[in-house]
Design goal:
The structure holds 3 protein chains of 3 kinds.
Chain A: E1 4-16, E2 22-34, E3 38-42, H1 49-56, E4 64-73, E5 76-77, H2 83-89, E6 95-98, H3 112-123, H4 129-142, H5 159-170, E7 177-181, H6 189-205, E8 210-214, H7 218-224, E9 227-232, E10 235-241, H8 242-247, H9 252-258, H10 301-305, E11 311-313, E12 317-319, H11 325-334
Parallel strand pairs in A: 3-8, 3-9, 6-7, 7-8
Antiparallel strand pairs in A: 1-2, 1-4, 4-5, 9-10, 10-12, 11-12
Helix pairs in contact in A: 3-4, 5-6
Chain B: H1 2-10, H2 12-34, E1 52-55, H3 57-61, E2 66-67, H4 73-81, H5 84-96, H6 109-119, H7 131-149, E3 153-158, E4 165-171, E5 175-176, E6 185-188, H8 199-235, H9 237-252, H10 255-266, H11 273-283, H12 286-300, H13 303-310, H14 315-351, H15 364-373, H16 376-379, H17 386-410
Antiparallel strand pairs in B: 1-6, 2-5, 3-4
Chain C: E1 7-18, E2 25-36, E3 40-44, H1 51-59, E4 66-71, E5 74-75, H2 81-88, E6 91-94, H3 98-101, H4 108-118, H5 126-139, H6 144-147, H7 157-171, E7 175-179, H8 187-204, E8 207-212, H9 215-221, E9 224-229, E10 232-238, H10 239-244, H11 249-257
Parallel strand pairs in C: 3-8, 3-9, 6-7, 7-8
Antiparallel strand pairs in C: 1-2, 1-4, 4-5, 9-10
Helix pairs in contact in C: 4-7, 5-7, 7-8
The chains are: A alpha/beta, B mainly alpha, C alpha/beta.
Chain lengths: ~325, ~425, ~270
């Protein structure tokens, strides 16, 4: 077992809306990542994936607010740190974040190298420009990006190239954790593959120690990450290794997600897709019992009344459902 | 829709602007109900009378007085008579007469007079004082004594045949008349202008005219801009090129110069307020056209317009239901801005003498023009120009405030 | 390719050129195609391959530069507004972005009522109209009673796209052109939309032209697949034939670039 890089304990964050209603978009989430490992977070839109990504940085801006819990990066608790301190000492060097539409984040009037200078100077104002250029050139070449990109403007690059450039810029300080929120959703399949290859490259070369990858595309998670965590309505409903999660899902929601996988491989056409009916609950007024009960075909009266904690079973696997594993497995087998 | 309106009225900026404008409009409609008459009527024969209440002296004398003995009446009269220069001169005498300077307080009229009556000696000749100066003190003393004595003023009538003066009335210092009993009293809160016209009445009428000019010009500009923008943007092709060419032409030539040329071309006699409004409207539509056009171009290729086309809807219906509602908020904002710029444009035109003809109705710009022509600003007749300035500022302030408020509601990126 | 069903939409040498001189770009380059009645066709290509331009031409929203599109074996004539309107009675579309597909100022019932009116149901009694709308909504698993007085943008992306399908259900066109209807939707709602498109085809028998960049979706849902690269069809045929035995290099690349589950995903190819 490797060293734990990121540990999150019972993290809860909320949005305070205009009408003073609290929306707990991340509800008592715990997770940990070891050195050299990557974690995938899956779920529908509106289930709190992106909010979790924002919360993990410890850098909150309204309407998002911190409520409780700890975020420990490499033995350092950042959950109660001063925002200025986090901005100066944590972001970029400890945690890097790539948002959904990252490729649109590049200022069109500046050359790519200027962004890198900015990022480095924010943390080391004395580093000479020549060193920065050498570092950038070396890093870009190692990651398979042509170093000519450095002297170009963002508009001269294609979508996939821009996305890879943004990833290269945000990891230039070799952060310990990289949080990638749907980094490839807006791209073509080929560009998506390049992005994935680059992320893997970063991990293998040790420029980042661990990665959190967020997407709703399960085949992607299966191929990129070691572990998968499924979120629903702000809570973790199941976690386990990627292979286990895809081929042997336990929670009815995970089962539903896996049922919607479409890949161009033999056998896809013969299986009837099992979609999950309904929509996620409104988190302003979350259901009192199991949050998935309204959409679950195995739900009983009891499900709607009692809320369940994550139950552990097997190595590193846990799920949040009142029904026994054996019974669930039996139900799945009968279908 | 209802929601949007509620949101608009929750915006503090819009609400502030709206209340200022509404209050102003309310005054514009209520004031003429109480104060009737032609605002251009010249009531004064002297120009630039100060703000205040004017009582006819003739009628006041002919009103039966009540006798009152007010405690400080004499003092006030004296105080009004004793100018600051007189007081300083009195002090000089007293110092020369040997009173210590520290004991003299020239602001305390009573104490000063007491010292004066005790120490003044008309026959004394303090060293170094000229004859003229001594005579000045004698006149001052006589004046003061007359004032202190409280003699009656005789009102007499001249006999037209003999030329003899017949005393008909005495006005005592204790006579008071009630202003309500005086037949002719006029209240001029803002005084009169150079022609002797009531400034307040004129201002109310001028504001009304200027807002009307703004509305007419704004409506014309917005209608032209909207129609040309919609046609150019939605239909495209050669029509777009043509409209864009004309728009560019209008944009390149500064609008104000065009305004001056057209106004000059029309001639003083034919320029009524409405004509000026139409001219302003006809020269200021270009920005509306350009922005409506660019918005329509981006809307034209949206999927809901494509779907509407596929559904076989007519061109008119697509524009009315799929395009117009999307740009409505923008057009409303442009309209408000056009009103405010039109009011300012009228003021500018009138300032240089190319505004509406002066004989029909006053406008804010004309009032400024008159005040400037008769040098009100150099003589300190503030009431002739300052209130006009304030009204112009208030109108454009309130309209721009409303505009900013609307912008914040319609443009979510500006919301806090 | 043999197909016993009559031709619905076909094209010979269809070309679209944008711009002149140095800016001249050929978006669609002499493509031939044959779509049969009741067929589920997918057109697969990456962004910039010309598939959206082709779809706009099929819809009659833009003119064809060269070549001819045939509708039911007759050359398609959309030279006047009247003829266009006539053609548009037979074809409908679902677009990629559900959020921009609705007029944000009309409510759900207005959207659906409009469809009934367009199909000559203007004079039906209100109860009958409501019955039709309820039927259309239940076809896509929505509850009409919950949707009245709501605006489309209050729904989720998946629900909006389902409402689009309800529209098509009411309009019953001969051809439905679905331009990436699932690309902006969650993976889990995607399956629902696809199933509903299949149901549309099976129940109403319309021809569905499905445009996508995801070859997996094309394989799952369609009978026939056309692969498009740089404005040309590089390969076409039945779905099994094209995806399980790809011949063109481009098809092979597209397939290899999609993440796999049952096979090893080879990252070394890019």
């Amino acid at each position: 077992m490797g060293k734990t890089i990121l540990e999150v304990k019972d993290l809860t964050t909320k949005y305070i809306t205009r009408f003073r209603e609290d929306v707990y978009a991340v509800d008592h989430v715990s997770l940990s990542i070891e050195e050299g490992k990557s974690l995938g977070i899956a779920g529908e839109s509106g289930c709190g994936k992106s909010t979790l990504a924002l919360s993990l940085m410890g850098y909150y801006f309204p309407p998002l607010h911190y409520t409780s819990g700890d975020i420990i990066i490499d033995g350092r608790n950042i959950s109660k740190m001063d925002p200025d301190d986090i901005r100066k000492n944590i972001l970029g060097t400890e945690i890097a974040y790539i948002p959904q539409a990252a490729m649109n984040a590049l200022n069109p009037t500046q050359k790519i190298i200027r962004f890198i200078e900015d990022v480095i100077h924010a943390h080391d104002p004395k580093m000479p420009k020549k060193d920065i250029h050498d570092l950038a050139r070396k890093r870009f070449e190692e990651l398979g990006l042509p170093s000519s990109v450095l002297d170009k403007h963002a508009v001269e690059l294609s979508g996939g190239m821009k996305q890879r450039t943004v990833i290269a810029i945000s990891t230039i300080l070799s952060p310990k954790v990289l949080i990638a929120d749907e980094p490839s959703s807006a791209l073509d399949v080929t560009s998506q593959k390049m992005v994935i290859k680059m992320l893997r490259n970063l991990m293998e070369k040790g420029y980042i120690k661990s990665m959190i990858f967020i997407t709703h595309e399960l085949p992607l998670l299966y191929n990129v990450t070691d572990d998968i965590m499924v979120m629903y309505a702000g809570q973790i409903v199941e976690k386990g290794t990627a292979k286990e999660m895809v081929f042997n899902p336990t929670h009815p929601y995970s089962k539903g997600l896996m049922g919607s996988i479409i890949v161009p491989e033999e056998g896809t056409r013969d299986v009837k897709l099992a979609a999950i009916p309904g929509t996620p609950p409104n988190l302003k007024k979350p259901p009192s019992g199991c949050r998935f009960a309204d959409r679950c075909k195995y739900a009983t009266k009891e499900c709607r009344l009692t809320s369940v904690d994550l139950k552990e079973f097997g190595e590193g696997r846990s799920y949040r459902c009142i029904i026994d594993i054996e019974k669930l497995r039996e139900e799945y087998a009968n279908e | 829709m209802k929601n949007t309106i509620r949101q608009i009225f929750h915006s503090p900026k819009f609400l502030a602007g709206f209340s200022i404008l509404a209050a102003m409009l309310l005054v514009l409609f209520i004031y003429p109900l109480f104060v009737t008459g032609n605002p251009l009527q010249m009531i004064g024969l002297s120009s630039f009378s100060k703000p205040g209440t004017y009582v006819s002296v003739y009628d006041a004398i002919n009103t039966t007085p009540d006798i009152m003995k007010l405690p400080h009446a004499d003092e006030k009269r004296l105080a009004a008579k004793l100018s600051d220069d007189d007081r300083i001169a009195m002090k000089e005498w007293l110092v020369a007469a040997g009173i210590p300077e520290a004991d003299i307080d020239i602001t305390d009229t009573d104490a000063l007079l007491e010292l004066w009556s005790d120490n003044y000696d008309p026959s004394a000749k303090p060293a170094g004082m000229t004859m003229a100066k001594r005579n000045y003190y004698k006149r001052l003393n006589a004046n003061l004594e007359a004032a202190l004595k409280g003699t009656e003023v005789v009102v007499s009538e001249e006999d037209p045949e003999t030329g003899e003066l017949n005393q008909i009335k005495f006005v005592k210092d204790t006579d008071y008349v009630n202003t309500k009993d005086v037949v002719n009293v006029i209240n001029l809160p803002l005084g009169t202008d150079n022609f002797g016209r009531d400034v307040l009445k004129e201002l109310v009428s001028a504001t009304k005219t200027s807002i009307m000019i703004g509305l007419i010009a704004g409506t014309i500009a917005t209608l032209i801009g909207l129609t040309t923008g919609l046609l150019a943007g939605y239909l495209g092709g050669w029509l777009d090129d043509l409209i864009l060419f004309i728009t560019n032409l209008f944009t390149v030539i500064p609008g104000f110069i065009m305004l001056i040329l057209i106004s000059y071309g029309i001639g003083q006699d034919k320029r009524g307020a409405t004509t000026v409004a139409i001219v302003i409207g006809l020269t200021s539509w270009t920005w509306t056209t350009r922005s409506v056009r660019s918005q329509v171009i981006s809307l034209r290729n949206r999927d809901h317009v494509n779907l509407s086309k596929l559904s076989g809807h007519s061109l008119a219906r697509i524009i009315a239901t799929d395009i117009l509602p999307y740009i409505a908020s923008y057009v409303v904002m442009a309209f408000i801005l056009q009103i405010s710029t039109a009011i300012l444009a009228e003021a500018q035109l009138s300032m240089i003498g190319l505004g509406p003809k002066t004989s029909e109705v006053p406008t804010l710009g004309l009032m400024m023009n008159w005040a400037m022509l008769y040098s009100a600003h150099t003589h300190g007749y503030w009431w002739a120009y300052f209130p006009v300035l304030m009204v112009i500022a208030l109108i454009s302030f309130s309209l721009n405030l409303m505009n900013t408020g609307l912008d914040q509601v319609f443009n979510p990126t500006l919301r806090d | 390719m043999s197909n016993s069903k009559p031709l619905c939409l076909s094209g010979k040498g269809v070309t679209k050129v944008f711009g002149f001189g140095s800016k001249r770009t050929v978006a669609v380059d002499h493509v031939d195609f044959e779509f049969h009645e009741g067929e589920f066709v997918s057109i697969v290509g990456e962004s910039g391959s010309g598939k959206t331009t082709l779809s706009k031409m099929l819809l009659g929203l833009i003119n064809v530069t060269d070549g001819q599109i045939f509708f039911q074996d007759k050359p398609l004539d959309i030279s006047t507004r009247k003829k266009k309107k006539e053609y548009w009675k037979d074809i409908q579309a679902i677009f990629q972005d559900p959020f921009s597909s609705y007029n944000v100022f009309s409510k759900v019932d207005t959207v659906l009522l409009d469809c009934i009116h367009m199909r000559g149901g203007k004079h039906l009694p209100m109860e009958k109209k409501i019955e039709m709308m309820t039927e259309a909504c239940s076809f896509v698993n929505l509850k009409f009673a919950e949707l009245t007085n709501k605006y489309p943008f209050e729904l989720s992306g998946g629900q909006m796209q389902r409402l689009m399908i309800a529209r098509i259900f009411l309009l019953k066109p001969k051809i439905l052109l679905a331009d990436e209807p699932t690309s902006m939707i969650d993976a889990c709602s995607r399956a629902t939309i696809l199933d509903m498109l299949m149901n549309l085809r099976n129940e109403i028998g319309m021809t569905i032209i499905f445009i996508t960049h995801d070859i997996g979706l094309a394989y799952y849902i369609s009978d026939t697949v056309y692969i498009m690269e740089h404005g040309k069809f590089v390969e076409y045929g039945s779905a099994d034939e094209v995806i399980l035995n790809p011949k063109a290099e481009y098809t092979k690349r597209l397939i290899s670039d999609v993440p796999k589950i049952y096979e090893e995903w080879d990252l070394s190819t890019v």
